[in-house]
Amino acid sequence: MNSNFFQAILGGDIKLASLTAKEIRVLKYSCSDLHFTQIAKKIGTTPRSVDGIRDSLHKKLNVNSRVGLAMFAVQVGLVTVEMNTSEDRKYLHKKQKQ
């Protein structure tokens, strides 16, 4: 992934409206830790179909990985990144002491 990806999003060349409903569902689930077989069960299709949808998303969004898909989803507001700040602080504080 490179700066062209972000420029395409910001410039409006990549639009969420160009994605099908199934692609959007796969995109959302791709941001989780679910395996593609689990995603297939959740959306009522086969793992092979999810692979095809994932390949389609890679081409449409000009990304090469699941991380790229997740970054796109965050950029357009399809998913949010949340942190449990109190738990994160405890973990980071503990790591700094070590």
**Main beta sheet strand tally, sense and closure:** none
Global mean pLDDT: 81
**Mind telling me the CATH class?**
Mainly Alpha
Taken together, the total number of domains comes to 1
Could you tell me the strand content as a percent range? Answer: under 5%
Write out the CATH superfamily name: Winged helix-like DNA-binding domain superfamily/Winged helix DNA-binding domain
Which structural class should the secondary elements be placed in? mainly alpha
Order of helices and strands: HHHHHH
Spans of at least 5 consecutive residues whose pLDDT stays below 50 are: none
Number of helices: 6
Helix content: 55-70%
Mass-distribution shape: globular
List the helices and strands and how they pair.
Layout: H1 3-10, H2 21-30, H3 36-43, H4 47-61, H5 66-75, H6 85-97
Helix pairs in contact: 2-3, 2-4, 3-4
Question: How does this model look, in words?
Answer:
By secondary structure, this protein is mainly α. The protein has one domain (3-97): Winged helix-like DNA-binding domain superfamily/Winged helix DNA-binding domain (Arc Repressor Mutant, subunit A, Orthogonal Bundle), CATH 1.10.10.10. Helices cover 65% and strands 0% of the residues. The chain has six helices and no strands. It has helices at residues 3-10, 21-30, 36-43, 47-61, 66-75, 85-97. The longest helix has 15 residues, at 47-61.
